[in-house]
Amino acid sequence: MVLKRHASSLESPFKRTSVRPRLPSRCPLCSYSTRMPREPKTIAIFGGGISGLSSAYFIAKRFPNTKITIYEAKERLGGWMQSQRVVLNKDSLNGQRILLEYGPRTLRTGILTLPTLQLIDDLGLLDDVRTTSREAAASQSRYILYPRNLVRLPSPGPPDFLLLWHLWVSGLLKGIPTLLMEPFRKGRPEDQRDKDESIADFVARRLGRDYRVADNLVSAVIHGIYAGDIYKLSAKAILPQIWHLERYYGSVLEGLARLRVGVKELTDRGIFCTALSRYDWDTINHMMRDMDLDLRVLERLSVRETATYTFKEGLQQLVTRLEDELRRKENVEILTQTRVSDYHLNANNQLEVTSSSKTSNGRNRTFDFAVSTLPNPSVAPAVTVMTVNLYYTNPQAIEKWRLGYTDREKSDGFGYLIPRSVDLKENPERALGVVFDHDATQNLDQVRGTKLTVMLGGHWWDGWREFPDEKEGETMAKSIVKRHLGITEEPDLCHVSLHENCIPQYTVGYEDRVRSEGSRLADLYKGRLWVTGNHYNGVGVNDCIRGAYLLAQDMENGGWLDDNHRIGLRKFYDSGEWFMGPNQFALERTLFGSELPKYELASLGQ
């Protein structure tokens, strides 16, 4: 990794270093690097969300002479990432503004988010970053509604026995004692070691067919990330580490204990281990070697210090800056309000793309290569989520006793999630959870108030022909915060957003479907069409950016003309063996040169 330095105070303790990469002949990401093909003359990118924009940016860096055209059906770019400054009309506030997020609101730190950090560095966004530390209330205080009260979850660090007692009394931990018997239960039969199953079935099977932990705890967490149904979502795709620990050791707890013991060469240096696939290890190695980052970015967004972050003008600021950068490039063309209606391979082995817009219908253009970031329901169906932003100028709108304390000045925390086990009387609106934005993302507004986002729908709305309108959404959101948080006053501001088919669902059999679809696309388009996006790389913003970065890297290293180059889906074909390796805290220290650049790995199951 090339680390850029700007201050003399940083120079002496840091040195340039990188994790020693594997030999090219054994490393999937560089196994074709000896053959560098010519650049494509033209590339089409379908979709102008964060995956499409990131793909265009990273491809343009690697193929600066290639003409890139982005097709986006809507008027604006960025997909579900949308932030807006709103003026408060209340006389006493004199037109002060607050920031509302209608989609995702924060990004997490971690070693696999290096491509996002590269974007932040390249686009000059570091000074606009707003962080939430690991010690902040939003990182430490998170709640689950059960059965009708908000129950605070333990935070990392020394155990709080009074909190654990309250958790036990609440009933939220019903079924947890069965965890003690987990190591003594049989693992999957040998002939079913690779068989997928739902998250609910996986957790319950490891707990003696007891579904209470899955229904009370796991479903709440999954509601917050996927808005999905744990009885349908794939354990293998969404919980790959614990799924593979059971696969190799027959028990999740046994596997975690083995990780604790770790690899001697690592534990002797005080490094805790984690489970990771060969593909993930190679990906980390290559990202660390390939990045060109300012040290200040790594310091500011260190996983050890920072839990989450956003930008001064919200996450859309990343989209806006990325769009501005692409529009400045002479080799990039952005077509908004232009829908791709058809694409096929012509007799010259070029992709012929048909698009329509308000000004033209049936316009045809040919490209050497294309990247699709469009949804693919045959791989992963998607759920619809409604978000309702509520703002109260009263900073004490939430009744503090409902959060377990009486100090009116105490921070509220991140918010709460609602598990599937909560009675419909407590959640008739089918809410997924509520985020306390005034604490989750601080220092963004000109005035302090109570700012909430209510999340509704997800899998609860599967099969609905019609969804609530804005007025109904507002009514439901106000009903929820009145019932759960004791807020009876009218909000000073309300905004309702309906995000149809916004979060892909990696249901049971997902990985097999992706491989099948990958083979179909490779055969049909002869390697000229690759895919990326949240249907393939993970549902988070960081996942989408990393997927775009790796796709561009794969295009350059392996050759965009290679029919068998996995069309952007290499991880589904080349995941390989699983290992014990250094965790992300140790790998991050490597970036600063305080650790040796070589690590020993040990295969799981040994």
From TrEMBL:
The keyword Flavoprotein applies. GO terms for molecular function: oxygen-dependent protoporphyrinogen oxidase activity. Pfam families: Amino_oxidase. The keyword Ligase does not apply. One of its GO terms (cellular component) is mitochondrial inner membrane. Its cofactor is FAD. It catalyses: protoporphyrinogen IX + 3 O2 = protoporphyrin IX + 3 H2O2. Keywords: FAD, Flavoprotein, Heme biosynthesis, Oxidoreductase, Porphyrin biosynthesis. Its EC number is 1.3.3.4. It is an enzyme of class 1 (oxidoreductase). This is Protoporphyrinogen oxidase. It comes from Westerdykella ornata.
